[in-house]
Amino acid sequence: MEGTHAALEDLLVLDLTRVVAGPYCSSMLGDMGARVIKIENPKGGDDSRAYGPYVNGESAYFAMLNRSKEGVTLNLKAPEGKRIFLEMAKKADVVIENYRPGVMDKLGLGYDVLKEVNDRIIYAAVSGYGGYGRYSQRPGYDILGQAMGGLMSVTGPRGGSPTKAGNAMGDILGGLNLTIGILAAVHARGLTGRGQRVDVSLVDSVVVSLENVFTRYWYSGKTAPRNGNTNPATAPYDTFQAKDGLAVIACGNQALYEKLCRDVIGCPEWIGDQRFLDNVSRVANMDELKPLIEGWTVQHTVAELVDRCLEAGVPAGPVYDAAQIVRDKHIAKDRDMFPVIHHPVIGDMHVNGDAVKLLETMPRITRPAPLLGQDNVPVYGELAGLTPEQVEEYGRQGVV
Amino acid sequence: MEGTHAALEDLLVLDLTRVVAGPYCSSMLGDMGARVIKIENPKGGDDSRAYGPYVNGESAYFAMLNRSKEGVTLNLKAPEGKRIFLEMAKKADVVIENYRPGVMDKLGLGYDVLKEVNDRIIYAAVSGYGGYGRYSQRPGYDILGQAMGGLMSVTGPRGGSPTKAGNAMGDILGGLNLTIGILAAVHARGLTGRGQRVDVSLVDSVVVSLENVFTRYWYSGKTAPRNGNTNPATAPYDTFQAKDGLAVIACGNQALYEKLCRDVIGCPEWIGDQRFLDNVSRVANMDELKPLIEGWTVQHTVAELVDRCLEAGVPAGPVYDAAQIVRDKHIAKDRDMFPVIHHPVIGDMHVNGDAVKLLETMPRITRPAPLLGQDNVPVYGELAGLTPEQVEEYGRQGVV
Question: Rounded to whole angstroms, how far apart are CA atoms B331 and B326?
Answer without folding.
Answer: 7
